[in-house]
């Protein structure tokens, strides 16, 4: 559905997207996971024809993003990082405007608008001005707008950024529902590990404009080999790494992170050698995968959205 | 056949974009009140105040307040139209522009929709002022009102294009206000809105002749008061030329505007 070949975007000397090659299959939910500034949004903007690549090429739904922008635009829906509806208009009027911009025939327009409003649960508030909507509702309206013309591909750029945990979970439900009911390819970017884990069929981990890992969430975690034990101790890490059941020792936030085959079996052994203040063990999370691949912890930063993100009020 | 469909499609999109501008305009009534207030102030305070000092060169049978009336209508058009360019900056700030740019809509369509919104805005304000003009005793006929409305639309098309074109290069509203002040005040003061053009010093008459608004003011004065410097036909011809050039500048600027 999407073929990306050696795609590059440079801003002066800064390389935002570095020689990216990637295929995304039909009807899959693909996650681009990475911290802010990793190049996720730049990739989305190029695929959505809003930015011209410095070099390389890509096709979306068989259309070239540079030579056939109009065809690409008709094939895609997109939800931007910051809500982009006109808040002086009602939800319904926003959808009406966009259904006309996407040339949806007059006789099916109303029916389609009602359908997408129902899908995102905004039917009752459709005649209220968008400025009275909460942050979560605004995002859902964006999704409804992206769905209007039944696109083949849907881009969701940080769909839950700036939402509180409850609204975020609601959002996940709506995203899962649209994947089920509308049958489309979804590309979502996120810097929330949990989100990528729950929603995506495959995940590409992006760091400094490159894909550093590409697999299913399960595969990525399996790649770490076994379980993780996190301990807080004054004991020398080098001594611990000499224990034969410990594959690897990494330091993270004052903790030692040990890779072992089976935490339940190995933990008692470990504690026989090491005195520890705090002990945790778990099967690996995507966060561990990220630390493993980049040597850094994922930063949970403030939204990087612009003006609206700073001034609009969210719930 | 293909062409008719794409033309209809284009017009439907222009209509959609215009409708949005119009609805927002209707919902922000403070905008209308605030921008109608200033011209009325000029008309009555400057009109009466300077009118009592009575410049000697006025055409016979026309008092100063009546004389500047077409100029004040033009002032309202100049300010409203050029400052309309700030709305493209708002659209960009609130990411609305991005959502339109990612739709299968050409930049020209976006430009035309936005410009028609600005023209509607100017026309409504001019209509309020024209109603005041009727009350002031300007001798309108239905025909001259319709002709005046046409001149208003022509002027506001050109000046809205100019405002939007300037706005498309800018990212900050404060910057836009600054730059645009350098544009609108000369446009207004050099247009002969407040004084007759006939006996000006040479350096000034060169400048007024270069100002597109001069021909709008003159056309309106010809239509409303039956007196003017150039004659309606010449006014309109020059106005059409300027408007076409500014429209082309707008289309060009929107074409090269960055999407993100």
Structure explained in plain terms:
The complex is a heterodimer of chains A (315) and B (260). Chain A is α/β, with parallel strands linked by helices. Chain A is 36% helix and 26% strand. Chain A has helices at residues 40-47, 69-75, 91-101, 106-119, 135-147, 165-182, 193-199, 217-222, 237-241, 263-273, 286-294, 307-311, and strands spanning 2-11, 14-24, 29-33, 55-60, 63-64, 76-79, 153-157, 185-190, 202-207, 210-215, 227-232, 248-252, 255-260, 278-282. In chain A, a hairpin with a 2-residue loop joins strand 4 (55-60) and strand 5. The longest helix of chain A has 18 residues, at 165-182. Chain A is elongated, with a radius of gyration of 22 Å. Chain B has 260 residues and is an all-alpha fold. In chain B, helix 4 (86-93) packs across helix 7 (142-168). The interface between A and B is medium-sized, with 32 and 26 residues.
Highlighted features:
heterodimer, A: 315 residues, alpha/beta, 6-stranded mixed β-sheet, 4-stranded antiparallel β-sheet, 26% strand, elongated, disordered C terminus, B: 260 residues, mainly alpha, 79% helix
Distance between the termini of chain A: 36 Å
Order of helices and strands of chain A: EEEHEEHEHHHEHEHEEHEHEEHEHH
Any idea what the radius of gyration of chain B is?
19 Å
Q: For the largest sheet of chain A, list the strands in their spatial order.
A: 6-7-8-3-9-10
N-C termini distance of chain B:
35 Å
* Number of helices, counting only DSSP H or I runs of 4 residues or more of chain B: 11
How much is the average pLDDT of chain A? 86
Mean pLDDT of chain B: 91
Q: Tell me the strand percentage band of chain B.
A: under 5%
Strand percentage of chain A lies at: 25-35%
Q: Given the helix and strand composition of chain B, which structural class is it?
A: mainly alpha
Shape of chain A: elongated
Show unreliable segments of chain A.
301-315
Largest sheet of chain B: none
Oligomeric state of the chains? Answer: heterodimer
């Amino acid at each position: 559905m999407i073929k990306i070949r050696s795609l590059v975007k440079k801003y002066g000397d800064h390389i935002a997207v570095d020689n990216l090659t990637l295929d995304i299959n039909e009807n899959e939910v693909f996650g681009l996971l990475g911290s802010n500034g990793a190049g996720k949004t730049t990739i989305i903007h190029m695929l959505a024809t809003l930015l011209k690549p410095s070099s390389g090429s890509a096709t979306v739904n068989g259309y070239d993003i540079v030579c056939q922008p109009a065809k690409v635009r008709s094939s895609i829906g997109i939800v931007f990082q910051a809500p982009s509806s006109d808040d002086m208009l009602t939800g319904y009027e926003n959808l009406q405007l966009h259904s006309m911009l996407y040339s949806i025939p007059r006789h099916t327009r109303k029916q389609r608008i009602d359908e997408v409003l129902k899908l995102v649960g905004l039917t009752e508030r459709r005649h209220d001005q968008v400025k009275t909507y909460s942050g979560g509702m605004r995002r859902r309206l964006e999704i409804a707008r992206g769905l209007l013309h039944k696109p083949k591909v849907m881009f969701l750029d940080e769909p839950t950024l700036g939402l509180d945990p409850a609204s975020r979970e609601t959002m996940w439900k709506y995203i899962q529902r649209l994947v089920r009911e509308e049958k489309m390819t979804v590309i979502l970017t996120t810097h929330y590990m949990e989100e990528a884990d729950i929603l995506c069929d495959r995940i590409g981990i992006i760091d400094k404009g490159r894909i550093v890992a590409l697999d299913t969430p399960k595969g990525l975690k399996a790649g770490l080999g076994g379980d993780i034990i996190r301990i807080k101790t004054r004991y020398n890490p080098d001594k611990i790494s000499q224990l034969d059941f410990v594959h690897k020792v990494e330091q993270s936030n004052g903790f030692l992170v040990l890779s072992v085959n089976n935490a339940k079996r190995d933990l008692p052994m470990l504690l026989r050698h090491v005195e520890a203040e705090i002990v945790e063990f778990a099967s690996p999370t995507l966060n561990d995968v990220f630390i493993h691949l980049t040597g850094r912890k994922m930063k949970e930063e403030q939204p990087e959205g612009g003006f609206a993100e700073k001034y609009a009020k969210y719930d | 056949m293909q062409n008719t469909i794409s033309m209809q499609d284009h017009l439907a999109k222009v209509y959609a974009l215009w409708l949005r501008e119009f609805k927002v305009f209707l919902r922000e009534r403070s905008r209308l009140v605030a921008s109608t207030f200033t011209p009325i102030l000029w008309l009555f305070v400057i009109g009466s105040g300077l009118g009592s000092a009575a410049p000697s060169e006025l055409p016979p049978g026309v008092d100063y307040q009546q004389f500047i009336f077409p100029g004040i209508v033009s002032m309202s058009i100049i300010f409203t139209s050029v400052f309309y360019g700030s709305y493209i900056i708002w659209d960009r700030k609130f990411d609305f522009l991005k959502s339109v740019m990612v739709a299968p809509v050409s930049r020209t369509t976006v430009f035309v929709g936005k410009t028609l919104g600005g023209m509607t805005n100017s026309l409504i304000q001019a209509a309020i002022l024209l109603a005041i003009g009727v009350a002031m005793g300007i001798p309108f006929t239905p025909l001259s009102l319709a002709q005046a409305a046409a001149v208003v639309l022509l002027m506001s098309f050109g000046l809205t294009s100019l405002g939007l074109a300037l706005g498309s290069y800018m990212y900050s509203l404060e910057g836009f206000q600054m730059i645009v002040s350098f544009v609108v005040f000369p446009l207004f003061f050099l247009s002969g809105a407040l004084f007759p053009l006939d006996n000006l010093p040479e350096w000034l008459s060169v400048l007024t002749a270069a100002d597109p608004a001069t021909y709008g003011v003159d056309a309106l004065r010809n239509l409303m008061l039956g007196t003017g410097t150039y004659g309606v036909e010449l006014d309109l011809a020059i106005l059409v030329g300027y408007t076409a050039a500014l429209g082309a500048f707008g289309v060009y600027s929107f074409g090269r505007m960055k999407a993100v």
